[in-house]
Design goal:
The protein is of the alpha+beta class. It has one domain (about 1-315): HIT-like (HIT family, subunit A, 2-Layer Sandwich), CATH 3.30.428.10. It has helices at about 60-65, 110-120, 160-175, 180-185, 230-245, 290, 305-315; strands at about 5-10, 20-25, 30, 75, 80-85, 90-95, 130-135, 145-155, 190-195, 200, 210-215, 250-255, 270-275, 300.
Length: about 325
Amino acid sequence: MNNRFFLTEHPDIPGVSIEFREEIYTGFRSRIVPNRIRRNLQDLPCDPDENDQCPFCQPRLGMTTPTFPDGTRLYKGESVTFPNRYPFAQFHTVTVVTQDHYVASFRHDQIADALSAQVSLLSSKPGFPSINWNYLVSAGASLSHPHMQGLVDNRPDFYLKKYFDASESYFKDYGTFYREDCLTYERQSSRYLFGDELFWYAHPVPVGEREIRCILPCAGITSFKPYINSFTQDLLKVLDFYHKTGTEAFTMSLFFDKTGDVQNKLHFAFCSIIARINPNRNGQSDSTYMERIHQEPVIRTFPENLGTEFNALSGE
């Protein structure tokens, strides 16, 4: 039985197929409207911006980016991590992922090193950490040069708290764990993509186009360390899928429980990644009043179709 979300179809709207979806325990909603594909938002990306003034390119990075209070930056592989000059969290870091200004496809070591640097710094701060990545300016990045951002605050943000509250309410109602029941149910659905310990599936009530979610076998960020390499390998598989469907830009967030807490089965860490519109000269956007103000995203792709499409394109 599905006790996590419900959907309502509206075939009575002339010429339009709309499916309203809502997560029962979080209240998050989205609208699946497949004929929105006719908007033709996903054109081939235009050329990346010039890098002659990019502060994340060498040799400017060492001269233009701030340092931590002890005068240092954290170097790991190609990645360089430093404080955000314009923070909006109690602790806010930036990790430049690569030396190259534009990357057609990422290497395993590039992403793994950047994630390791973020984990190393965020796990030393008390609070609720997240690792975030807007890739390309059309996904909200201020610069095309690949960079992640790490946040720690003393309370969970709105999205994470909804899932923590949902998990606790679910346990009171059913006596079972939200995470474990989600894995059991989704493994049998057409939304399941791959993985077991790191469980990847198309989220049934997506927050953005082609949302793919990973439920992690841990809660806190310190416990994530042993999984960085396997997570990176899986993430590259997802990015390759996006690339094959014509998507270059994406947004990703990794959410964790409070740093330093013991493993809590009621809470769980998870990753959400969504496809974003490619950079384009017309300045088109995939975010409208529905996404930003109404907070009910309008999605073109049925999550149930992603499993078939993913398997066909990845050769699995």
